[in-house]
Write a structure and sequence with these properties.
The complex is a heterodimer of chains A (116) and B (114).
Chain A (H helix, E strand, L loop, with lengths): L3 E4 L2 E4 L5 E7 L6 E7 L5 E8 L5 E2 L8 E7 L2 E6 L8 E9 L5 E4 L3 E5 L1
Parallel strand pairs in A: 2-11
Antiparallel strand pairs in A: 1-3, 3-8, 4-5, 4-9, 5-6, 7-8, 9-10, 9-11
Chain B lengths: L2 E3 L4 E5 L4 E3 L2 E3 L6 E7 L6 E7 L7 E2 L2 E6 L4 E6 L8 E8 L6 E3 L3 E6 L1
Parallel strand pairs in B: 2-12
Antiparallel strand pairs in B: 1-4, 3-9, 5-6, 5-10, 7-8, 8-9, 10-11, 10-12
Classes of the chains: A mainly beta (116), B mainly beta (114).
Chain lengths: 116, 114
Amino acid sequence: GAVVSQHPSWVICKSGTSVKIECRSLDFQATTMFWYRQFPKQSLMLMATSNEGSKATYEQGVEKDKFLINHASLTLSTLTVTSAHPEDSSFYICSARGGAKGETQYFGPGTRLLVL
Amino acid sequence: AQTVTQSQPEMSVQEAETVTLSCTYDTSESDYYLFWYKQPPSRQMILVIRQEAYKQQNATENRFSVNFQKAAKSFSLKISDSQLGDAAMYFCAYRSPYDYKLSFGAGTTVTVRA
């Protein structure tokens, strides 16, 4: 149980285009999902908290207009990187809140984004 | 965000032996959650073990166990009978009871020697 999927796992795009990443909780409902960014050999950096049916909460320094988050259902959150540039190239990971008391975050497998 | 410190960037262990990873955290709260996550080369984050602060008993999951010292704000992970598949980066994480966000440590890379 507590499986989270992400799609796509790999994406290469041209500078200036937009890329959408999907995060799904497969066997549980998640009212809250999280989006992280991770650079090689570093820790996870929280970008935003996504709550079903409401606006996402962004961490300080994260551009809301660049990283659009939508959490339209209890099993799906999407992250859209708008007008992507090479500096947006990174590993993006989502997680979903689950567990008996909703105390645990379960992570998706991540998406590697390369912007050329 | 709470501060979580992992002071060991890298650890090496012989196969079948034991390794202990350290983690300390800073908090003024009395109830909270602590986690250890494993990130192998595939980069999939895997939950290893979870501890609720109000529970004095140390959590155990097969070969993985923790030494939770609440007064010292310490939460170390012991990997017993290390296997090659244990090679990964391990992250310690803290969660406040009032906020669902996780605060992560910098991570410890574990290498297992055959």
